[in-house]
Design a protein that fits this description.
alpha/beta, Rossmann fold, seven-stranded mixed β-sheet, 14 strands
Amino acid sequence: MAELTMVEALNLALARAMADDETVLVLGEDIGRDGGVFRVTDGLIDRFGPERVRDTPLAEAMIAGVSVGLAAQHMRPVAEIQFMGFLYPAIDQLVNHASRLRTRTRGRLTCPMVLRAPFGGGIHAPEHHSESMEAMLAHIPGLRLVIPSSPARAYGLLLAAIRDSDPVVFLEPKRLYRAPREEVFDSGEALPLDQPFVLREGDNVTLVTWGAMLKETLEAAERLAAAGAECTVIDVATLKPLEMAPILESVGRTGRCVIIHEAPLTGGFGGEIAARLADQGLLGLLAPVTRVAGYDAVMPLPRLEEHYMPSVDRIVTAVERVMSFG
């Protein structure tokens, strides 16, 4: 079993899906001969040819629209948007067509497409290359929204997304693309969608996060454990549809919850989780649900990037605050 980066694991999953199912194809800007801006599709054109690995013009609306058409005709397109900040022109196709095809045709057609995009900050990229606008996508009925946080989960979740009968937006935290490495076996086995992963068990506080912020969250949990506070850490993984059962079970035991995400605080997806805890788990709470998030500002240029993103110190401070209740 090889130790792979997330980039390598995603490449392995794409190759496995294309080898197993001839209806799977990939398309996007520079994904063929260049192998994609982060090299996720590297080598696929040599193995599967230009008919199934298609370089496209710089036209995100077209990439999404063509993918809807292919999916409606029983293909399984996997489209790449180079950065999440370039995804906005594709929103029209996602909202008005991909997400509605099943209901519009009363189930006669489905839309088994995946739209991949790197997202988040931390690599000192310029403007429009560091967005974390996952809450906007989670608000679209009919879309699945999946965010892996490790190479093994990236492999299994991407396979599941490609095999799903409905459209999936698959956001890849590019800060984790090449670190850390993890053992990944090319078994072809998918991981379940719509299921959070409990990565650490503790009885004092529940930490809920996704994507690249898992790194800081686990580091905070280690620091807090040394101080005597044991944390449960939950990787949401599939934001839409959101499965609350593991979160509710953990918070019912700990009585405290801190939600961590890189996206801006206002309207961020952490607010949805907090609202559901208030609705379904209020009587088990011993302290207010707390969010640690990015600021309500555009992701700054590289010199201030680390100040913007939630740090281990900010997470620890939030946990200490909720631990002070009761």
